[in-house]
UniProtKB/TrEMBL annotation:
UniProt domain Cytochrome c: residue ranges: 45-138
Signal sequence segment: 1-22
Descriptive protein name: Cytochrome c domain-containing protein
GO molecular function: electron transfer activity; heme binding; metal ion binding
Record flagged with keyword NADP: no
Organism: Rhodocyclus tenuis
Top-level taxon of origin: Bacteria
Keywords: Heme, Iron, Metal-binding, Signal
Keyword Heme attached: yes
């Protein structure tokens, strides 16, 4: 019986500490900035470069011309996938509380979407600029 109390107690302890492992968009941004600075010493993220990247039209496909194709011109607004018509939560972290809170999930979507939209993986600098823009949009 004591083993069950121990296991039960450990389970409660583990579950109560989960939020401590959650990342914030600011922590992800700091990681991207550090990675970009290794490639480009002195790198500093730019909300303006991020905005330009978000709104840029790429020539990879006609349907997914840019981030805005699915996420709309306003990252605070909900979007819709142009191929599947699936609803998409707003991209800006302030509008969707789960956005950019898990590094693995963020990387998965950056990898997938960057390849589909710009034809390659995004650089750490591009990710930093985009996330800086999305965080700046929330401050407006």
């Amino acid at each position: 019986m004591n083993i069950w109390k121990f296991v039960s107690g450990m389970s409660v302890l583990a579950m109560s500490s989960l939020p401590a492992f959650a990342e914030t968009p600011q922590q992800l941004l700091a990681g991207y900035v550090a990675e970009a600075a290794q490639a480009t010493p002195g790198f500093s993220p730019s909300a303006e470069r991020g905005r330009q990247f978000y709104l840029q039209r790429h020539a990879v496909t006609d349907r997914q011309q840019g981030c805005f194709s699915c996420h709309t011109d306003n990252p605070l607004a909900p979007g819709q996938h142009v191929t599947t018509s699936k609803s998409i939560e707003p991209l800006a972290p302030v509008a969707g509380s789960e956005r950019f809170t898990r590094a693995a999930k963020s990387e998965k979507w950056f990898r997938r979407n960057c390849k589909e939209v710009i034809g390659r993986e995004c650089s750490a600098g591009e990710k930093a600029d985009l996330l800086h823009f999305l965080l700046a949009e929330a401050a407006r």
